[in-house]
Amino acid sequence: MFVDRVKIHIKGGNGGNGAVSFFRAKYITHGGPDGGDGGKGGDVIVVGSDSMNTLLDFRYKRKFQAQNGENGEKRNRSGKDGEDVTIRVPVGTVIREAESGRIMADITKPNVPVVLIQGGKGGKGNQHFATATRQAPRYAEPGRTAKEYDVILELKLIADVGIIGFPNVGKSTLLSMVTNANPKIANYHFTTLSPNLGVVRGRDGSDFVLADIPGLVEGASEGVGLGHDFLRHVERTKVLIHVVDAAALEGGDPVENVRKINEELENYNPELRKRPQVIAANKMDLPGAQEHFQALKATYEPQGIAVYPISAATKTGLDELLAVVAQQLRQYPDEIVFTPDFEAYVEPTVDQEPFTIEVYDGNYYVVTGVGVEKMIGYTNIDTEKGFAFFQKYLKEKGIIEALEEKGIQEGDTVRIYDLEFEYMK
To answer: How far is 99 from 348, CA to CA, in rounded Å?
Structure first.
């Protein structure tokens, strides 16, 4: 079964907490702080694999979580770092954040690890917060919580050339005649329900990958039929072979059919309409094809789209078609890569770390948060200069404003860590 789109949940490992501990030994009852640091949480890593060609495995496992870092211990012992979790995906997989739809990563090369989520940083033990005036800190830094996301994995086949067109116009037959691929071929709509790949061996020694994109229909760009599932595979192709039934065996006007498919390409992704394209007027060995062929040339060659008469069934005109496609490929050497537009999570600095305020008994305000508690640990509140610095920090941080929004009045008590003071305007 070919599966090219799945939704999974990923989470990085949380950092371990720092330890609050004091050295104790015989005859030593008031030793200094010796709390160790917490370990770093594991990362979420994605690696492309050449041996995978479907996302089927993700139907059975949809949650991936890296290991949490271990907590720090006494005697300055740090916690063990959490193990990373590695997710293997087919080369050509685009990873999107489900809520925003923004691209997090595009896996275009095998065996190149890409970090999607960094594990949380381990918290520092209380040994780091000892100062000349605060020699026994009873505070340690908690580990950071890692981010987690629902993500969409989309497999977009990496092919140099894509064969497009309405159902049953001969795309699979063309692929089978010019490559080593063996697609199932039959005379009814939507024979092909998944893309097929083949390698074209050029007479000049050049090779390129050719993909048969399953039949598109009018309205595909709006999701009609399996439109989005099919159209996503066109996005990586550099050149498009637009196969049309010149004999009009399926009914409809071949000129109009080409216009409809190109309109769907542009509606789905305007960049696709700019890709080099050639029209392969197929079934030229059948009655009535010559008249439609001339109409196709008169309509599309003035637009810069060459039209070639072929018969995939009898292998007529295929060499000429492939020669011009190979020439266009040489003029389009760059790989098509989807640039990530997702802003990676960056751990906040002390000045940006959040804080919370809880109110008890109507006049007792408790402020908590890593940033403010660190600031107390590093500041000598007992001196006039140190206390003035701390007041400035509370104001700039927005804590004073937040307390006033909570309704604090003069004379109310504020507690931060082990410091209590009376609020004065």
So the answer is: 23
pLDDT in tens, 203-214: 666 788 888 887
Angle between helical axes of 318-330 and 171-178 (0-180°, round to 10): 80
> Quick check: 283 and 247 in contact, CB under 8 A?
yes
Task: Tell how many helices (H) and how many strands (E) occur in the chain.
Answer: 8, 18
Amino acid at 71: N
**Contact between 336 and 235 (Cβ < 8 Å):** yes
- Taking alpha carbons only, the member of 248, 244, 242, 243 closest to residue 287 is 248
Tokens of 302: 């003035």
Q: Has this prediction a pTM greater than 0.85?
A: no
* Residue 319: strand, helix, or coil: helix
Give 92-147 pLDDT, tens digit per residue: 999 999 988 899 999 999 999 999 999 999 988 888 877 666 677 777 778 888 99
Please name the residue that has the structure tokens 């200094």: 32
Distance CA 25, CA 372 (A): 33
Residue 170's closest CA among 277, 251, 282? 282
Residue 59 CA to residue 175 CA, distance in Å, equals 30
Strands 93-97 and 103-107: antiparallel
